[in-house]
Known about the structure:
Layout lengths: L2 E8 L5 H10 L5 E5 L6 H14 L3 E5 L4 H8 L5 E5 L1 H10 L8 H27 L8 E8 L10 H20 L2 E6 L2 E6 L2
Amino acid sequence: xxxxxxxxxxxxxxxxxxxxxxxxxxxxxxxxxxxxxxxxxxxxxxxxxxxxxxxxxxxxxxxxxxxxxxxxxxxxxxxxxxxxxxxxxxxxxxxxxxxxxxxxxxxxxxxxxxxxxxxxxxxxxxxxxxxxxxxxxxxxxxxxxxxxxxxxxxxxxxxxxxxxxxxxxxxxxxxxxxxxxxxxxxxxxxxxxxx
Length: 195
């Protein structure tokens, strides 16, 4: 059988990850968590530690900051549940790695192309995962978490606007492939796509 993809989106501290973990913990079988966050400072290290505590035991954690497509391809057939958290951190990781590019139009175009190539690779992988055949008869579940960053004010600097626009593009592409999509606001999940 194929993989069912659930995409969960919402603002910062909206309850996205808690909702996904509650859903995932109710499913039997081995579970994997693909973490895209990097502990670049003490505050982020604390957040990562809290997420690990929230998951508790029973999860295999795979830290992957950039190659999430390769990670998904390696893990999806080995687990009943895979959680990918989160796409906007992954996007940020890619943008950080392009900071040495020149400023202005040329740098922006190259940075945008690099991210768009990564998004294309991810969407191809998700489509393959969704339609692929598993070696077991069980339906596998893939939960993907992302932030909605386009509902506030227009950012004042170019890089922030570029990030907002690319995140919106990324979220649209993933939502298009997903079997179901939830928007979480104030801890309340609302299904916006799927049965």
